[in-house]
Amino acid sequence: MEKEFGLLRSALKNAYITDEQTAFLTKQWYIGVLARIRINAFRIELAGGMYDYRDLLSLAAASVEAEAAVGNAVYMLPSFYNHDCDPNAHIVWIENVDARMKALRDIEAGEELRICYIDASMNHGARQTLLSEGFGFQCRCLRCLSGD
Ligand SMILES: C[S@@+](CC[C@H](N)C(=O)[O-])C[C@H]1O[C@@H](n2cnc3c(N)ncnc32)[C@H](O)[C@@H]1O
To answer: In this protein, which residues make up the domain named SET (predicted)?
Structure first.
């Protein structure tokens, strides 16, 4: 983090950006930006074209088969999706970095679209720990409240 912060500062200095213009660039600001990226970013995994994505099993198989994440990205609208351990929607990337949202079941008009930030197959305790430590909240979705 220290190294990246130093690189950012010197890159701006080398671009002749004045100290006055970079007064915002404190370590605290940088840490805040990293935290917001961490919480809002999606890990992009390109799924091959050989599956049809109508069911969850096909999605999972495609995800496992995808060689590796091609990167991380923050998307404006998807940043607003809240988490649920039993989500009604899922985000996929078929060919490129254009994200697509897939419904995982019928969704009522007015129902909030919720995605799962983590591996939903983990048990209750492991999910709570990961969400608390990685995303800073205690999950109170219906599944967690039921103790599952
Ligand atoms: C990607 S943002 C989602 C949008 C955010 N709720 C907002 O209003 O901008 C992730 C943050 O939303 C909150 N959040 C998401 N799902 C939640 C849930 N099931 N229970 C409580 N807080 C949640 C947490 O603060 C989490 O760090």
So the answer is: 1-118
